[in-house]
């Protein structure tokens, strides 16, 4: 069980005064093998990772709707690492953000006193730094389902029902369904891996955005995909790090209206 500690710095505290800080620490751990239990206990006492993330568009002080940030947070959660979540208003980016990342993008994580950007780079660095529990997806499985997100965006932005974008998404989902039928329940078989932590948030956005803007949902015939989504979305770490439904809807509105 996680304990939530929230603190807001004073107006004179420098760059950190423009953001909210949230620290998550793990509570009592269930009985496990002694070495792993000691490792988890050591992590709970470690210096929390600093994570800069998008702030909610609809509820100040809440985590925003970035699926790439959720991927990073899922990795940290599944690694049982303490972290400090610093929420940034991306509509009014503070000057300090560009100092630690010239592109002004999030997520950014401070690892070994160095700010690291890009969810791919961040998650790989965390895996190297904290290899237990392992989340590595074998190379031959790492790209499974990787085209779903881009085809979802194409369909979401489409204003022509006959342009083939819906079928392109269905083709990718059908391929993923067949893969899960033969190799599931997760991408790497019986256990959650990095590929699931990357794909899960994207499927979450797909479900909400297409449901709202297209009145569309994954067909019941793709039962393995639907079961997979339900399983991922119900993970404690996912529930803890997911964006609000209204934020996902608001976040995709420019893509739909643009």
The first-to-last residue Cα distance is 42 Å
* Overall residue-averaged pLDDT value: 87
Q: Percentage of helical residues?
A: 40-55%
Shape: globular
* Strand-pairing-aware structural class: alpha+beta
Give the topology string: H per helix, E per strand.
EEHEHEHEEHHHHHHH
Spans where pLDDT lies below 50 across 5 or more residues: 1-34
The number of helical segments is 10
Largest sheet strand order: 1-2-4-3-5-6
Indicate the radius of gyration in whole angstroms. 19 Å
Strand content: 5-15%
Number of strands: 6
Main beta-sheet annotation: 6 strands, mixed
Topology:
Elements: E1 2-7, E2 20-26, H1 34-44, E3 49-54, H2 67-78, E4 83-88, H3 95-100, E5 108-111, E6 114-117, H4 119-129, H5 148-157, H6 165-183, H7 194-213, H8 223-233, H9 236-241, H10 245-257
Parallel strand pairs: 3-4
Antiparallel strand pairs: 1-2, 2-4, 3-5, 5-6
Helix pairs in contact: 2-4, 2-7, 5-6, 5-7, 6-8, 7-10
């Amino acid at each position: 069980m996680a304990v939530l500690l929230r603190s807001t710095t004073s107006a004179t505290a420098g760059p950190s005064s423009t953001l909210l800080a949230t620290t998550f620490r793990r509570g009592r751990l269930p009985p496990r093998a002694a070495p792993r239990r000691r490792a988890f206990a050591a992590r709970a006492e470690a210096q929390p990772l600093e994570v800069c993330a998008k702030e909610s568009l609809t509820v100040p002080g809440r985590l925003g709707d970035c699926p790439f940030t959720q991927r990073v947070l899922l990795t940290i959660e599944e690694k049982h690492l303490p972290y400090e979540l610093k929420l940034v208003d991306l509509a009014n980016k503070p000057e300090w953000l560009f100092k630690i990342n010239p592109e002004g993008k999030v997520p950014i994580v401070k690892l070994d006193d160095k700010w690291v950007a890009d969810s791919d780079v961040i998650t790989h660095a965390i895996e190297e730094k904290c290899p237990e529990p392992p989340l590595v997806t074998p190379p031959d499985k790492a790209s499974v389902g990787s085209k779903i997100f881009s085809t979802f965006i194409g369909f979401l932005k489409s204003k022509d029902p006959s342009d083939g974008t819906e079928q392109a998404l269905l083709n990718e989902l059908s391929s993923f369904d067949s893969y899960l039928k033969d190799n599931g329940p997760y991408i790497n078989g019986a256990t959650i891996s990095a590929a699931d932590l990357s794909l899960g948030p994207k499927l979450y956005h797909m479900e909400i955005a297409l449901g709202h803007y297209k009145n569309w949902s994954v067909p019941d015939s793709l039962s393995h995909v639907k079961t997979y989504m339900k399983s991922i979305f119900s993970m404690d770490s996912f529930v803890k790090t997911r964006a609000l439904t209204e934020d996902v809807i608001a976040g995709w509105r420019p893509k739909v209206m643009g």
